[in-house]
Each structure stands twice: as structure tokens, then as C-alpha cells.
Write a structure and sequence with these properties.
The chain is built from 5 helices and 19 strands. It has about 400 residues and is mainly β.
Length: about 400
């Protein structure tokens, strides 16, 4: 895989291509990501996060090459020295080659470079094949994606769609205008492979898909449904996944015991969208999981391929409300309720001002609320941020 990616470099160097450069800058005030009972002093950090991104796109009839590279900088001495930042350094792509450099610390911050996407492919009316570091799309959920074990979104992150790439070859065969078959083979960090197959078709009233994923650790069988409710304008969707996973048996560093080894459970989402004529859009979605996991189990399996499916509660209800005030100003509100022994909630309002095609500003918050011992109440940490995005 590494040799094949390197062989694509001459194409990028000598071909005509389009490019986009954008810079995303966050000023963040954030509480610790660790819960109150994790044995660490709770602190609040103020720091700056900056990502300079270069996108290169080459297209020649049916062939294409896509490249996205990042330079990432964290500015804030206290934050870089904190356990929260050490946790970030543990997160990396599950690929057989490194996609990012080491974190290079300097007096008041830390910086590193990252290969976000790098792939090449061919597409015509009947076929699409992509090879390299790419995004594998599965599922229909807006907030959660139980079926996507490759690079699912994280709705609790500042940028939910910023996910690691997958080193894979993916192929889609368009059977006709309403149905297609897709297969994926990806290589993981341990040089083993993860395979997926998906069949999608339109069945009279809705789009339907059947998904399957297999690796040495995991078996997943899932479904997807999405369609309009008669002539109401309401879009309904659902996806579900049966997951069987054999973990390596992560060791608790304190008790020296295994957190858990094998797990088998079912997850599903049910959601709906509706856009009002006045510019208001409402999205509702619920998530059910037949099994829940502790913070310790999740933390000790941070590099597991089912990390996004390890939930603290068995049932969640969430929704987003977005409204366009005018051509410059948009607002949105995300609300998620965690139903457990003690209920808790995650609330994220944002306000976006778009100056022009090149400059945008976003102010927002990520608030966690609940009783002590509840999912979000245990963290007792809110995040407030200001984002400036520049594209040129």
C-alpha cells in the first residue's frame, strides 16, 4: 500500500490540478475530558487549535487523484502538558503506515503534520474504484452511525466529520439507476484486513441497504432504510447493526485485570428530518444499544475498531434545530439526552456568520449537564469556542 501511494506522486507533480488552501482556527476554553471519578485534578484549559489544510484534485476524464494534507498546531502550554492532550496523542489512524508525524513540542505548544486523504481512482457510468487513504461511507444516521466501523463521525467533537482515513481499495458496481453493490478491503495497523460488502437499492418507497463487515476482531451485519413519509415532506430513516467483537483483553493499569474480552450486542437508530418553509430545519434521532459500557472500558479500548459503538447508555434521544436568519447569519442547536439510571444531556448551540466565500466565523458551546454519576454529569466540563475559517 505504501509503495503504491508513493507511485502516485509523479502524477501529482506533473499533472494540471486544482487546489484549495484553507485555515481553520479555534480559540477554545475547555474542561477536562476525564470524568470526576478518574483520579485526576479537574482543570479548565484555554488554548488555540489551528489547522492549515491543502487540497489537491487531479481529474483526467475518468481518472482522478485526491490529496489532503494538514499542518496542525496546538498553542497553550498548560494544555499541552495536561493528561487531556496526552490522550489526543494516543489517537491515530488504523492503517499499516503512519499518517502523521510525531508531536513536536515547543515552549508553549505542540505541532505535527498529517496526511488526511490520498487516493486515486477510476469512475465511469457503471464502475467506481478508489485506492488509497479514503473515507468509507456507510449508514444514514445524522447523529450516530452504528453500521460504519471504518470512520464514523463523532457528534460530540468540535468537528464531527473530521475522521481518520482508511487504507483501502473500494469498488462500486452500478447495477442500474436505482441499485448498486460495493465491496471494500482495508489494511489495518497490525497488517490484518477488514472487509465489507454493501448492497443498496430503491424499493418502491424507500432506499434500502444491507451491510456486512468482517475482520479478525469483528463481525457486523447491518441494514439501512431511508425514504419519504407519503407526501408530507418528512424524511424517515433507520439503520441497525448486530456486532460481535473479540477484543484483545485490555488491561486495567491499576487492577491489572482485563476490562472485557468478548462482546456481542445490537444497535439501531431511528430518525426523521423536516424542513419548514421559513428556513427552519428539524432533525430528530434516537439510538438504542442492547449493551452499555463504562468509561474505563471505553478508555482502555481507545484504538478498538468498534470504539464509536461503545456507549455509556442503552438509549439516547437527540435532535438538531437549524435556522437561517439571512444570507449572512445561521444558527443551530444540538440536544442529546442520555437515558440511564440518572439522566443527563449534551447541548451545543452555534451561531455562524458568513462574511463571504472566503471567510466565516462561528461561536458556540458544548455543555454537559446532569447529576453526579450520570454520563454527562460525571464529566462536569463545558467547552466554549470561537472558530475562524479562511479559504483561498
Amino acid at each position: 500500500m505504501k509503495k503504491l501511494l508513493l507511485s502516485l506522486l509523479p502524477i501529482l507533480l506533473f499533472a494540471d490540478f486544482d487546489y484549495v488552501v484553507d485555515n481553520t482556527n479555534f480559540t477554545i476554553n475547555q474542561g477536562s475530558v476525564f470524568p470526576d471519578n478518574f483520579g485526576l485534578d479537574k482543570k479548565t484549559y484555554t488554548y488555540n487549535y489551528d489547522r492549515l489544510r491543502v487540497k489537491l484534485n487531479y481529474d483526467d476524464e475518468n481518472f482522478f487523484v485526491h490529496f489532503i494534507g494538514d499542518s496542525v498546531n496546538y498553542l497553550g502550554e498548560e494544555y499541552v502538558d495536561a493528561p487531556d492532550f496526552e490522550y489526543i496523542t494516543l489517537l491515530e489512524a488504523d492503517t499499516p503506515f503512519k499518517t502523521q508525524t510525531k508531536f513536536y513540542d515547543y515552549k508553549v505548544g505542540s505541532v505535527y503534520a498529517k496526511l488526511y486523504r490520498f487516493n486515486a481512482g477510476y469512475e465511469d457510468e457503471d464502475n467506481r474504484i478508489v485506492l488509497g487513504l479514503q473515507n468509507i461511507t456507510m449508514g444514514v444516521g445524522r447523529l450516530w452511525n452504528p453500521t460504519n466501523l471504518f470512520n464514523p463521525k463523532n457528534i460530540y467533537a468540535l468537528e464531527a466529520d473530521e475522521v481518520f482515513g482508511v487504507a483501502a481499495i473500494s469498488y462500486t458496481r452500478y447495477l442500474n439507476s436505482t441499485s448498486q453493490v460495493s465491496v471494500v478491503a482495508s489494511e489495518k495497523k497490525d497488517k490484518t484486513f477488514k472487509y465489507a460488502a454493501r448492497y443498496k437499492a430503491f424499493l418502491e418507497y424507500a432506499d434500502m441497504a444491507v451491510d456486512a463487515i468482517y475482520s479478525d476482531q469483528t463481525i457486523m451485519i447491518g441494514y439501512e432504510l431511508e425514504g419519504n413519509l407519503a407526501d408530507t415532506g418528512i424524511e424517515l430513516r433507520s439503520e441497525g447493526a448486530y456486532i460481535k467483537n473479540s477484543l484483545a483483553g485490555s488491561i486495567n493499569p491499576i487492577t491489572k485485570e482485563k476490562a472485557f474480552e468478548d462482546t456481542e450486542f445490537f444497535q439501531a437508530i431511528l430518525g426523521a428530518d423536516y424542513g419548514f418553509e421559513n428556513g427552519l430545519t428539524l432533525t430528530l434521532e434516537s439510538l438504542y444499544s442492547s449493551q452499555k459500557f463504562s468509561f474505563e472500558q471505553i478508555f482502555l479500548n481507545v484504538n478498538s475498531e468498534i470504539l464509536s459503538n461503545l456507549t455509556y447508555s442503552k438509549f439516547y434521544l437527540g435532535g438538531t434545530l437549524s435556522y437561517t436568519f439571512n444570507i449572512f447569519l445561521d444558527g443551530s442547536l444540538l440536544y442529546i439526552e442520555s437515558f440511564n439510571t440518572k439522566n443527563s444531556r449534551f447541548i451545543s448551540p452555534t451561531l455562524t456568520y458568513t462574511l463571504n466565500d472566503y471567510n466565516s466565523f462561528i461561536a458556540g458551546a458544548m455543555i454537559q449537564n446532569g447529576e453526579n454519576g450520570s454520563e454527562f454529569g460525571s464529566f462536569n466540563s463545558n467547552t466554549y469556542f470561537f472558530k475562524y475559517a479562511l479559504t483561498f
